[in-house]
Amino acid sequence: MNTDPSKPLPDPDGENGPFWEGASRGEVRVQRCTGCGLLRFPACRYCSRCLGEKSEWVRTNGRGEVETFCIFHRAYFPSFAADIPYNVALVRLEEGPKMFTNLVGLAREELRIGMKVRAVFERVSEAAALVKFERDAGG
Question: Is this model's pTM higher than 0.90 or not?
C-alpha cells in the first residue's frame, strides 16, 4: 500500500482509465486501433498510423525489454525524497508499445539496457496499482 499519501495516485476515470483498471487487476493493457490493429500507449484519440478514431483496450503479456533508464539523485517533488536514488526506465513491451516505469528488485549496478523484464504491480490504494517491472528470469 502507498505509505506516502502525498504521492500522486492514478486517475482511474481519466483517458487511461482502462489501463489503470487493468493494473488494479494485475494486467498491463494498451489501446489497439480497431481499423489497422496498431497497439499504442498512452491512450490517444487518433491512431498515428491510419488516423482512425476507434480503438479498444487489450491485455498484453506483461513482458518487455529495457530500452533505457536513468537514476534520479534529486527529488523534484518532496514526496519522492525518501526514494532517492531511484530509477526511471523506458520499457518496450513485447507487443511494441513503450512505457515509462520503475525497475524493482534490482540493485542499480544490475540495471542493463536490453534486460528482459516482466510486469509486477505495486498496490498504492485499495482501488489502484502501479505497473513496475522486474527482471524476467524466464525470458
Answer: yes
Question: Nearest CA to 118 among 128, 104, 129?
Answer: 104
State how far the alpha carbon of 100 is from the alpha carbons of 36, 37, 42, 53, in Å: 25, 22, 10, 24
Mean pLDDT on 90-116: 97
User: Is the bond preceding residue 85 a cis peptide, omega within 30 degrees?
Assistant: yes
Q: How far is CA 135 from the centre of its chain?
A: 14
> 65 pairs with which residues across the strands?
92, 116
**pLDDT > 60? residue 1:** no
Whether 130 and 96 have beta carbons less than 8 Å apart is answered as no
| CA distances in angstroms from 115 to 70, 76, 106, 124, 132, listed in the order given | 14, 27, 11, 26, 14
3-class DSSP assignment, residue 1 = coil
Nearest Cα neighbor of 85 from 70, 71, 106, 67 is 71
